[in-house]
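How a chain folds remains the central question behind the approach discussed here. In the encoding step, the backbone of a single protein was reduced to a row of integers, each denoting a local shape. We regard such an encoding as a compact summary of how the chain folds. The sequence in question and its structure tokens are set out directly beneath this paragraph:

___
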Amino acid sequence: MRALRPLFCCIAFVLTATPALAQYNKAAGENAPMESVRKVVTRKDGTQEAREELRPAARDGFGNAKGSQNDLAVDGAFEGQTVAVLQFYTQDFDFSLPKAALKEKGFSVYRWVNQAPSPKELRKGLQKACQLWIISDSSQRLTPEHVKVIKEFFDAGHGVYIWGDNEPYYADANVVGQALLGTTMQGNVIGDQTVGLRKDEAGPGLLRRHLLTTGLEYLYEGITIATLQPSPQLTPLLHGSAGNLVAAFYDNGGKRAIFDGGFTRLYNKWDTAGTARYVKNAAAWLTNVERFGDAVVRADLRGTPAQKPSPKQ
């Protein structure tokens, strides 16, 4: 029995390390997914046999695998779940493109636009959401009371996506980033390039073989972007074409967040490499089904079942 124990341990590790949740596609965690193809082979005696062969999935014009089956999440998997958005930057940006992409996976979107609600209303709204996205502007809109509510939400295991952009469009991103993750972003780097998979720790490029980068070998970095400051709490996700750290994530203690210095990806050159897929992957990952279970029935901060709000916009 002792000799078999290491084998059982190895099997258990493989099973727990491989995503097998109902919300995720088989391609989860693979940058270059494979697909099964049925092929008929003729034997030497003239008889035929049908075989299944694996081959790389068909690619789009940017080099990423085609098809929603190569996104992280199954279409419609998060029906009834809501992404709450504090959108403070609005110039030429109505959030319609990300909203349509998120709808494919079942998410609805609830936005507060230009101004923050009262802390009380924010807490009430977040009770109806599985995650919060904050899109910063050049001036600060969030008070310490707002940040306290956001931290409660984060500490309860609900995902937070913090978006900034080139200086000075990271006022609230830095306030929330410092409070939740102990870091900030700064600067103004001209990007406007598509980057591939990272070849080394310093970039440029995307992190390999992570749920967030499922189905992505190439991603547009954004036009003008900020640079994240180093933090031991964050794992680098995207280094820009200039080698600067554009996006990173936190995944520790059952809590998840993404810190990103390139919100122009959400509306500018949307059809460039990988943006829609990345947005869908990010929302699926931030839902944190690994913590809350396959049912993804979220309890609010008081422990009662979440309800779906009526979107403001």
Summary: Confidence is low (pLDDT under 50) at residues 1-18, 297-313.
